[in-house]
Amino acid sequence: MIARVRGRVVSVEPRCIVDVNGVGLELAIPDKDREALGPVEGETTFHTHLVVREDSLSLFGFLHREDRDLFLKLISVSGVGPKIGLTALSSYPAARVASAIRGGDSAFLSKIQGIGKKTAERIVIDLAGKMDDFLTGAPEPLQTSSGVRDEVLLALTSLGMSHNSAEGILDRMEWNDTDSAEDVVRRALKYAGGA
After folding, report:
1. Cα separation of 73 and 123, whole Å?
2. What pLDDT was estimated at residue 45?
3. What is the rounded distance in angstroms from the CA atom of residue 40 to the CA atom of residue 62?
4. Is residue 145 over pLDDT 50?
5. Taking a C-beta distance cutoff of 8 angstroms, is the pair 2, 45 a contact?
6. Are 58 and 50 in contact (CB under 8 A)?
7. Cα separation of 154 and 73, whole Å?
8. Domains of the chain
9. How far apart are the first and last CA of the chain?
10. What's the CA gap between 78 and 83, in Å, rounded?
């Protein structure tokens, strides 16, 4: 298994390419890590996991070890593959996903693209008692007011907007938690387009 890669990031789109002593390794990385990299000088270290399939080898990389560790726990659950694990960590920080798992918030998990209600419940059942590595205190309080924001962020990122851009637009435009997610998404897209 390849647990760590250190090298010069050559490109981040559409996949991250890291030059390690003249060998270009292709890594699938979370969107938030891609945004954090930007123009990179010098070498970068990724915590990695190699997924071996009958017809392919896929290397997944994370700037933070806790993201890689949570990714490994997620893909250990039946019905959760590497693509879904990467999507979860592209959308939210590891601590937020772990908090939802530990707190039994399957409704939050089912908002992540690719995770349905049954899979979300299975994740909670399988992993709820295994989140101590990610959380030192009590589970993060579940705030109903964040529900619309979470839905809007997921919708905007699934439409191709970066998580940071979507967050920035929601912070700048006027909206409130009583608005429907659909309405906020429409207004956010208009706002992004300058309309």
Report:
1. 9
2. 92
3. 15
4. no
5. no
6. yes
7. 22
8. 4-62 (2.40.50.140), 65-130 (1.10.150.20), 146-193 (1.10.8)
9. 49
10. 13
Alpha-carbon torsion 157, 160, 164, 166, what sign?
negative
- 14-42 pLDDT, tens digit per residue, is 789 999 999 999 999 998 888 888 666 67
- Among candidate residues 36, 62, 38, the one with its CA nearest the CA of residue 49: 62
Q: Which residue has the tokens 């529900």?
A: 147
**Tokens 């992540």 belong to residue:** 112
How many CB atoms within 10 Å of residue 72? 13
Q: 173 is written with which tokens?
A: 């435009």
Burial category of 75 from C-beta neighbours within 10 Å (exposed 0-12, middle 13-18, buried 19 and up): middle
Pairing status of strand 56-62 against strand 44-53? antiparallel
Half-sphere exposure of 29 (CA within 13 A, CB side): 29
Cα–Cα distance for residue pair 56/164, rounded to 1 Å: 31
Rounded-to-integer distance, Cα 126 and Cα 137, Å = 20
